[in-house]
Amino acid sequence: MITNRLSSLNTMHPRDPHQPHRVASPLELFFDLVFVVAVSFSSQGLHHMEADGQVAAGLLGYFMVFFAIWWAWMNFTWFATSFDNDDWLYRAMTVLQMAGALIVAAGSTKALEEHDFALVTIGYVIMRLSLVAQWIRAGLHNRDLRRTTFRYAAAISAVQIAWVVRLFLPEGVGFVCFFVLVVAEVAVPMWAERHGTTPWHAHHLTERYGSFTLILLGESILASATAIVDTLGSGHHLVEMLAISAAGLIIAAGMWWIYFSREQHHHIKTLKSSLVFGYFHYLIFAAAGAFSAGIEVTVDSVTGEAHLQHIVSALTLTGPIAVFIIGIWWLTLRHTLTSKASSLVLTGVALILAGSLLPGIFPVFIGALGVAVAVIATEMPSPEGGRDSAKIEKSSNSAP
Questions:
Q1: Quick count: other Cβ atoms within 10 Å of Cβ 82?
Q2: Are the C-beta atoms of residues 60 and 115 closer than 8 Å to each other?
Q3: Is the pLDDT of residue 140 over 60?
């Protein structure tokens, strides 16, 4: 029986983009768990850099490492929504991508602190080349989409060769080449899908993006919980830690509330709107991950372990929260809220940033208050008596 299973492979036909009740598979959820490790390591690295006073360098390194995590996750997610036959070879190639994610996680600290991206690059290339094999397989099984799938495979392979070559370039040249290659990576789907788009399942994709958002917000809750545990052991600053933990939970819950306050599947319709939705989430995801580091920096500031001015320390927390809310507002909420409600969201963001001017743990409290204001705005009626619901219903019946 085992031999028969290993010798048989399913045909990798495209999935039905209108399949009812399409949900994330157990393999996709398992895949996400590995990325929890990568996200955690990158957030911890950012925390250490910020606490040591190297905020600018830490943010730059974090955004560079986070690109590798985000882009690999996103490409697997969009491939899986179109081609997921769940046979043993598909599972094996997915596990190989997961191994690459763990290598990225292992190299993230060195990349942030020493600008050594060798291990991150190796893990990233493993993830990307594993997906190349999947694209080739999909092309062999689908004549109509063969041109698109082979374009993906060829372009991704070429860029991966360039990533490896970059490791041998002088540091200054390699730094510039990093951003050139980022542009090349994000241009691949635009070029590959030009003569035929793969079938995307809008509801499935937005569920997957929501799951990744939950992973990132979970990191912030873990940071708060860790602070409480450490403080209980030391017996110092217990009141401050409890306050930070409570406010941090309110902020995380508010960010969750705002993100899931509106349906988002109507964004995945045309190639342009789908790319905007997918690419813009880099800022949203990165901000959510940086929020976790901001919580830990706030804890360090209270305990005297952070070497930062209070405004800079506060901005490590309030900045990511503001970027996250602005990102969701720009992507989704501004199209569904009244002018008054949108103004209230922006008022909440301004309040969050204004809290950076206050000392001690006050920025966390003001941040929680600002998030609460934005949450209230999302609960206000949509313009024209529910026009948003009609628009979502119409778009859900449209082909992507």
A1: 23
A2: no
A3: yes
- In angstroms, the CA 313 to CA 53 distance is 9
pLDDT at 182 over 90: yes
User: Cα(133)–Cα(205) distance, rounded to whole angstroms?
Assistant: 22
Closest CA to 268 of 197, 212, 206, 193: 206
DSSP 143: S
Q: DSSP assignment, residue 382? A: P
The reply to whether CATH 3.30.450 applies to domain 202-396 is no
* Helices and strands in the chain: count of H runs, count of E runs: 14, 0
Of 148, 156, 153, the residue nearest 195 (C-alpha) = 148
**Sign of the alpha-carbon dihedral angle for 374, 376, 382, 383:** negative
pLDDT digits (tens, 9 = 90+) for 89-122: 999 999 999 999 999 999 999 999 888 999 999 9
What residues does each domain of the chain span? 26-195, 202-396
Give the residue from 11, 74, 128, 54 showing the smallest Cα distance to 307. Answer: 54
**Scanning the structure block, which residue is given the tokens 């204004």?**
354
pLDDT score of 240 more than 70: yes
Which residues, other chains included, contact 28 with Cβ-Cβ below 8 Å and sequence gap of 6+?
77, 80, 208
